Amino acid sequence: MTETLLAFAGLLGLAFARIPVAFSMLIVGIAGFAWKRGIPASLDQLAQTTFAAGINYELSVVPLFILMGNLVARAGMSQELFRAAYAFIGHWRGGLAMSTVVACAGFGAICGSSIATAATMTRVAYPPMRQLGYSDKLAASAIAAGGTLGILIPPSTIMVIYGIMTETNIGRLFAAGVLPGILAAFLLCLAVRYVIWREPQAGPAGARSSWAARWRALRGVWGVVALFALSIGGIYAGIFTATEGAGIGAFGAFVFALARRSLSWGVLREVLLESARTTSMLFMILIGALVFANFINFTTMPRDLQHFVERFAVHPTMVVAAMCAIYVILGTAMEELSMILLTVPVFFPVIVSLGLDPVWFGILIVVVVEIGLISPPVGMNLFVINALLPHVPTPTLFRGVTPFVVADVVRLAILIAFPIISLWLPSVLRIAGKGY
Amino acid sequence: MTASSGEGRTGASGGGLPTSVSPLDDLFPGRLGAWAGWVLGTVAATVLFTMMVLTFVDVTGRKLFTHPVYGAYEITEFLMGALIFSALPLVTAREGHVTIDVLDHLLPAGLARWQQVVVNTISTGALAFVAWRLWELSTSHMRTHEVTMTLRIPHGPFSRLFAVMAALAAVACLVIVWGYLSGARRVRSASAGSHS
């Protein structure tokens, strides 16, 4: 136990000194493994793990979904979604911010990245909100918060990585994310209402659309629906595995981007390269985490934690709530993916031994990551907004997201209390592939 | 936490904006660095595109014509490796690895540069170490003539390629250390990154 805590402390020390997280995990993992099993074993382990993670078929789902997300972001498919959402609810007070949230949810159905969702939605939703006189605070924070729906509503990069690490069925995770995603959109809209109630001038109402215009706008989102049905729908129907669905989805997105003339050779190369770089970056973290996990598995930490939980006969729900609380706190200061990769080897065995559903835990993990993405000071989506809207002061943004963070924490509590919200849909679908 | 400013910029340029060749794509400063960066970038892009098309053709072939691509599974595996490792030097060269920089403001401004020197030296060491281990692995792959089951693709050349790419990343990282030492490279402030 002590050695593991020392290892975690050393790891955090290196990472907070700004050594890339991937290398921090790698260094501590190699040293720890050498200490437990000897230097030759550790050297072997490093090479084997790196090579095996590098040539893993299952993991090809990661770059393919990343590529799909980057392609649809270029194809401007967020524009139609926003227009359709606006046609229905834009005339409410705060309606544009709510339209943003709804459009983000829709975009999340074809994009597995929160950052791509937030980035593309900034371009689409921010100018109309400003034009109508929205406060920067509400406009920017609604986009940051709505953007996080990208990883909850399938496809989702985080779910894929969690699924592969824990051998949980990715298709079932994808199914489990849908209802929590709708709940999330609803609660974020409530948060917008709250802001409007406190500051009525922050989000004035837009013009009302006629029903004819509404149907026209709704028909405009056919591309998104088609892509979702083809890729994720195929996974739900048990026709594709997640990897196959990702390949179909990426190719479909490529065809859409071509048809919309949003791809030149240069743009295509840049989209591909950007996706490749993101993949490489993620894999370095993944390899570091695997090396570190190999070491952790030789320590007594996972078992000790299980014994601890058993001895005190803590209610399973309390255990999960405690883990989520740790995540929410860690997530304010840490990079979310590394946080998950580091802790899952320790937490997951406890979850399984308590007889809890790994799919449900996966959804909770995605939700804590979402909270981490918008909780200051370290939140990726806040950085994206910051980079795209440099004139919005950081403190304004930090204050603006508070109601949304609260809405997310409420959602987390609801999802912990009612696992059925996550688990109902996967239980009625016949999903192909292995895993839980 | 940030990834590189470069990641943020490209991640932010999603709306079909024109993209020009950026110095961020260079593996290191100078003509050779620009050329190497361009080659690696083109390789990574081509590999990913091939992977996408291959998966699509394989799946439609299997589902619609009951005729999958022979050995697609194994080809994809090695394309994955080529993708990850050919992009590794590029990510490294633009300081694109995920770092946690919440504590950076506690550091006196004068020391920020030295922090970067130390951090990048350690990163260079880690990358060189990985390269060395992969090289040893590839040597044993070549000695034992290890191949895949279906297509009998030899492992050796691939593990060797990964080793070379990791070594190239280490070189790029060493150039960054030199950049901070010589003052040619300035410490960035926090910025956006790209993933999840």
Keyword list:
heterodimer, A: 436 residues, mainly alpha, 78% helix, globular, B: 196 residues, 5 helices, 65% helix, disordered N terminus, disordered C terminus
Description:
- The complex is a heterodimer of chains A (436) and B (196).
- With 436 residues, chain A is an all-alpha fold.
- Helix content of chain A is 78%, strand content 0%.
- Chain A has 23 helices and no strands.
- Chain A has helices at residues 2-16, 21-37, 39-54, 61-74, 77-89, 95-108, 114-131, 136-147, 149-152, 157-166, 170-176, 178-198, 211-219, 222-236, 242-259, 265-296, 301-311, 316-333, 336-353, 358-374, 380-388, 394-417, 420-428.
- The longest helix of chain A has 32 residues, at 265-296.
- Chain B is an all-alpha fold.
- Chain B is built from five helices and no strands.
- In chain B, α2 (31-65) packs antiparallel against α3 (72-93), α3 packs parallel to α5 and α4 (109-144) packs antiparallel against α5.
- Chain B starts with a helix and ends in a 14-residue tail after the last helix.
- Residues 1-20 and 190-196 of chain B have low confidence and may be disordered.
- Chains A and B meet through α2, α3, α4, α7 and α15 of A and α1, α2, α3, α4 and α5 of B.
